[in-house]
UniProtKB/TrEMBL annotation:
<keyword id="KW-0186">Copper</keyword>
<protein>
    <submittedName>
        <fullName>Protein SCO1/2</fullName>
    </submittedName>
</protein>
<keyword id="KW-0479">Metal-binding</keyword>
<feature type="binding site">
    <location>
        <position position="81"/>
    </location>
    <ligand>
        <name>Cu cation</name>
    </ligand>
</feature>
<comment type="similarity">
    <text>Belongs to the SCO1/2 family.</text>
</comment>
<feature type="binding site">
    <location>
        <position position="170"/>
    </location>
    <ligand>
        <name>Cu cation</name>
    </ligand>
</feature>
<dbReference type="GO" id="GO:0046872">
    <property type="term" value="F:metal ion binding"/>
</dbReference>
<dbReference type="Pfam" id="PF02630">
    <property type="entry name" value="SCO1-SenC"/>
</dbReference>
<feature type="disulfide bond" description="Redox-active">
    <location>
        <begin position="81"/>
        <end position="85"/>
    </location>
</feature>
<feature type="binding site">
    <location>
        <position position="85"/>
    </location>
    <ligand>
        <name>Cu cation</name>
    </ligand>
</feature>
<dbReference type="InterPro" id="IPR036249">
    <property type="entry name" value="Thioredoxin-like_sf"/>
</dbReference>
<keyword id="KW-1015">Disulfide bond</keyword>
<dbReference type="InterPro" id="IPR003782">
    <property type="entry name" value="SCO1/SenC"/>
</dbReference>
Amino acid sequence: MARATAVAAFAALVAVLGGLWWFILGREAGDPFGPCRTSQVAGGTAAIGGPFELVSETGETVTDAEVLDEPSLIYFGYTFCPDVCPTDAARNAEAVELLAERGFDVQPVFITIDPERDTPEVLAEFTDYLHPDMLGLTGSAEQVRAASQAYRTYFAKREGDDPDYYLMDHSAFSYLVLPEHGFVEFFRGAQGLEAETLADRAACFLERA
């Protein structure tokens, strides 16, 4: 009986390892970015991203097809954010510079979650300070929420006594989007991921695009 149990357990282990081996090799064989991925997305990468219509920092109405025509690193935040957003956006700008040194052109994109205060003019001043190529996008409340939902981000306004001074709760991820592939990977905030590491991970995708 003990031997039979041991044999059955060994067979089960072989089956599990075989399945894991098939999963890993199968994923990499069918996914050109398999070796680069360090995160998993429920529903797959196709579940994130999609069409949007927003207003650029120059005041023009633009679509995703018009502004994401090159590799882009997208962040959802707001310019009145006291700490997280400027830190993350600055990290992204530094990562873009590091990628440029390797020969990769990546556009940093900052999409506001606070269109009430983040006008095109405010965004332009904010993005120009961080990086000359950073693109700021705003829009109506409906347009911003639709873009946020497409990328499965979260934000909510904190109500306070002064209607002009308030904070926003929000997720803090950056999204790498490639023209021919759409969304391919997300990266955590600057407190958990430095610019050098982000650049290394992004370069893996760019090399295989």
